[in-house]
Amino acid sequence: MIRQIFDNCLPLLDTLKHNHYSRRIKSHYQAYGTKYDFARFFEIADEAGETAGMIVIFNASMIVSTSENKSLDEDGLYELSQFILMNAPLMVEIEVCYSDALRPLLADDYTTDVRTQFEFSSRNALPLMEVNELPKLDDVFKVLASSFPSIADNYELWITDTSHRVRRGLSQSFLLGDYTTATIQYIVDKVALIGHVATVPERRGEFHARRLLYWIGERLTLDGFTVRLFARPHRVSYYEEIGFKELETDIVFERKEFDD
Question: What average pLDDT does the structure give for the chain?
Fold first, then answer.
């Protein structure tokens, strides 16, 4: 059974496995709680009525994670697939062990994309670089907009969410010069996830993103954080050269575009 949660989620969050999906759910709860329509939280309960997992629908994305020592059976996965189809998020993240079972259930409406998770391996050598750790978010947006059309077309949504998380210490943007940026999308359970890495077109090919990612990795490692990021599998060698090691791959479900 899947039911929406309108009050305190902390007891349920404490049951979740220690993985990216749980950290993503926790980050949304820490940022917004249960009082906003754009951040809806749900409990997955098993036949005994015990918590088996949680779901968050944040804007147009859905993240699913299961509880420790719990798993979703065939009936649970079918119910989850119907829940996904009913809500129709643009993207679904879920533990890879459930991807193969969900794929045929979602095949008419969703495609799949493989991605790789990486973890930074420190060399204990923080380079001297002039990195702005508290940049103006409008300056960050200018760089991001050149690489991410979905962000470029949604300035108000991006600035509202990013500034909200930054003010609460849940996220942080970095800016190298006025041409390269990266953002910590969440900092949960001593794990920092890097995302939205971009360089303006005229400065690409000059290794600025590579240098910034290495600097962030060393900087956050010194602060006691584990640093991770996601990328497409064909980028493994690129990130390994920077200092990131491949951990695992998973599958993201992306909603198909249909003509009206």
Answer: 96
Q: Are residues 150 and 246 located together in one domain of the fold?
A: yes
Number of domains the chain contains: 2
Max CA distance (Å), the chain: 59
Domain identity same for 191 and 239: yes
- Fill in the DSSP letter of residue 227: E
pLDDT-wise least confident of 53-67, 178-192, 232-246: 232-246
pTM of the predicted model over 0.70:
yes
Asked if residue 90 is part of any domain, the answer here is yes
* 260 pLDDT tier (thresholds 50, 70, 90): low
Residue 255: count other Cβ atoms within 10 Å of its Cβ: 17
What's the CA gap between 56 and 47, in Å, rounded?
21
Q: What is the dihedral of CA 84, 88, 90, 96, to 10 degrees?
A: 10
